[in-house]
From TrEMBL:
Residues 1-27 are annotated as: Disordered. GO terms for cellular component: plasma membrane. GO terms for molecular function: flavin adenine dinucleotide binding; oxidoreductase activity, acting on the CH-CH group of donors. Belongs to the acyl-CoA dehydrogenase family. Keywords: FAD, Flavoprotein, Oxidoreductase. It comes from Parafrankia irregularis. This is Acyl-CoA dehydrogenase. The lineage of its organism: Bacteria, Bacillati, Actinomycetota, Actinomycetes, Frankiales. Residues 263-417 form the Acyl-CoA dehydrogenase/oxidase C-terminal domain.
Length: 446
C-alpha cells in the first residue's frame, strides 16, 4: 500500500488530491510513511486513554463539562496545526484534501489515545453540519466557516425541529423576511443538542409562504450570541440538560449567512437528514474500534454484580452479542450500498437510523436484566455503577431524535420499497393556505 504519495504533514498546505500526478514537490510520503509519521506525532502529542476506557456508547450522561470542551477545542487546534484535522476535507477550505485511506490510517494509529472531546455539539458540527455545508454552501461561505470549524473556533448545532414541526419538518413556521438588504429572523426551535455552549446554529426558516411547504424554505447560519437569540436548556429524564430550545426575536442576518439557495432549503435538509441518520456510512465513516470478545461491557457488568457464572445472565449476554454482530453486519452492508448508489444514500440511511432506534432499547433492557437491583441503586459518585441505568434512560433517544422509528419505516416503505405513499392533503397547497385551513377546520365532515 505504498504507491500513493502525499506531501509531508506538519503544515496545513497539503495537496487537494492524494495522487502523485497532482504533486508539484518531490517531498512526498507514501501511505506507509504517512502512517509512520502520524504514529510518531500521536505518541508525542496525545495522551493514552485511561486504562478503564470510556463508558460504552449510551452508557454515559450526555452533558460534557465546560473544561472538557475547552480542552477539546485546544486539542482540535493542535491537530489542525499539525495537519491532522480535516484529512479528507478540501484544501481550499483548510482541509488536507487526502483520500479516505489516509484518514483511516491516522485514526487507526490514534486508537487508544484521547482525541478532542467537543461533546454532542462536536459530533453535530463535524458529522452533520459541516458535511451539509460542504455539499451546499457557497465557496465564500465555506472559506469563512470551514477553517474555523476545523480549529474548533466554531461549533455548529441544528436549529431544525420546532414545537409545531417535529416529524413534519417541512411544516416549520420560523420565518425570515427580507428587509432592506437584510434578513430578519423570528420564531422558535427546540431539541437542539448542545446549543448552550455552541457558537452557531444551522437554522431552517420559511422565506416564502405562498408556495407548497417544501418549496419555501431556506437555511441560515445564525450566531448564537447574536442580539435577539435566546437559548434555554431543557431538563431530561437523566437529570442532564443537554437539549435546548431557542427563541429568535428580530435577529438580523445577511445574504452571507445563507446556506444553499434561497427557497431550496428542503434539498439541503435531505442532505442533513442523510448525515444525521447514518450518512457517514456512505463515506466510510470514522474508524470505530470493534469490541473484542463477547459484549465486553455486559461481561464486566455481570462480573461486577456477581453473576458471571449465572446461566441466565450468560444467556442474556450472548443474546446481546448476537444482536451486536448483526447490527455491525447491517451497517457494513448499508455502507457498501450507499457508496455504490449515492443517489439512494439519503433513503438507505433510514435503515441505519431505524436499526439504532430498535436495537438500543433492547440492549438496554438486557443490561438491566443482568444488573438487577444493582443497576438501579448504587453508591453516590460511583460513575461506573450508574452507567446501566443511564443507558436505560437514554435508550429511547435514537427511536425519537432525528425522526422517529415510524417516520423511518414510512420513508423506507415509500422511497426504498416503492410502496404507495400515505395520503397527503397539504403538499400541493401554498403553506399560507394550509395554516388558514387548519385554523378553520372544525372536524365535521361535509
Amino acid at each position: 500500500m505504498g504507491d500513493t504519495a502525499v506531501k509531508g504533514t506538519g503544515q496545513t498546505e497539503v495537496p487537494a488530491e492524494a495522487s502523485t500526478e497532482t504533486l508539484e514537490t518531490s517531498e512526498t510520503l507514501t501511505l506507509d510513511e504517512y502512517r509512520a509519521r502520524a504514529r510518531v506525532w500521536i505518541r508525542e502529542n496525545l495522551r493514552p486513554v485511561p486504562a478503564a476506557g470510556p463508558a460504552p456508547v449510551g452508557m454515559r450522561t450526555t452533558e460534557t463539562p465546560p473544561e472538557v470542551i475547552a480542552a477539546g477545542r485546544a486539542l482540535q487546534r493542535k491537530l489542525f496545526d499539525a495537519g491532522y484535522a480535516g484529512i479528507t476535507w478540501p484544501r481550499e477550505y483548510g482541509g488536507q484534501g487526502l483520500g479516505g485511506e489516509y484518514e483511516r490510517a491516522f485514526l487507526e494509529e490514534a486508537r487508544g489515545y484521547q482525541m478532542p472531546n467537543l461533546g454532542i455539539a462536536g459530533g453535530t458540527t463535524f458529522g452533520v453540519c459541516a458535511m451539509t455545508m460542504l455539499a451546499h454552501a457557497s465557496p465564500d461561505f465555506l472559506r469563512r466557516h470551514i477553517p474555523r470549524i476545523l480549529t474548533a473556533e466554531e461549533l455548529f448545532v441544528q436549529f431544525f425541529s420546532e414545537p409545531e414541526a417535529g416529524s413534519d419538518l417541512a411544516g416549520v413556521r420560523s420565518r425570515a423576511v427580507r428587509e432592506g438588504g437584510r434578513w430578519i429572523l423570528n420564531g422558535a426551535k427546540i431539541w437542539s443538542s448542545g446549543a448552550y455552549y455552541a457558537d452557531w446554529g444551522m437554522c431552517l426558516a420559511r422565506t416564502d409562504w405562498d408556495v407548497p411547504k417544501h418549496r419555501g424554505l431556506t437555511w441560515f447560519a445564525v450566531p448564537i450570541g447574536a442580539k435577539g437569540v435566546t437559548v434555554r436548556r431543557i431538563r431530561q429524564i437523566t437529570g442532564d440538560a443537554e437539549f435546548c430550545e431557542e427563541f429568535f426575536d428580530n435577529v438580523e442576518l445577511t445574504d452571507d449567512d445563507v446556506i444553499g439557495d434561497v427557497n431550496d432549503g428542503w434539498t439541503v435538509a435531505q442532505t442533513m437528514l442523510m448525515f444525521e441518520r447514518g450518512g457517514g456510512l456512505s463515506h466510510g465513516g470514522p474508524v470505530r474500534k470493534v469490541p473484542q470478545g463477547i459484549a465486553p461491557d455486559l461481561v464486566e457488568l455481570a462480573r461486577s454484580v456477581g453473576r458471571i457464572d449465572d446461566p441466565q445472565a450468560r444467556d442474556l449476554i450472548v443474546r446481546a452479542h448476537v444482536d451486536d454482530v448483526a447490527r455491525r453486519a447491517l451497517m457494513a452492508r448499508l455502507g457498501g450500498l450507499m457508496r455504490a448508489e449515492p443517489g439512494r444514500a439519503a433513503h438507505l440511511a433510514s435503515y441505519a437510523k431505524l436499526a439504532s432506534g430498535v436495537h438500543d432499547p433492547v440492549r438496554a433492557n438486557l443490561a438491566m436484566a443482568i444488573g438487577g437491583p444493582d443497576a438501579v441503586a448504587w453508591e453516590e459518585n460511583d460513575e461506573a455503577a450508574g452507567r446501566t441505568a443511564i443507558g436505560f434512560l437514554n435508550s429511547r433517544f435514537m427511536s425519537i431524535a432525528g425522526g422517529t422509528n415510524e417516520v423511518q419505516r414510512n420513508g423506507i416503505g415509500e422511497r426504498v420499497l416503492g410502496l404507495p405513499r400515505e395520503p397527503s392533503f397539504d403538499s400541493g397547497k401554498p403553506f399560507r393556505e394550509v395554516l388558514r385551513d387548519a385554523r378553520n377546520w372544525s372536524g365535521r365532515a361535509g
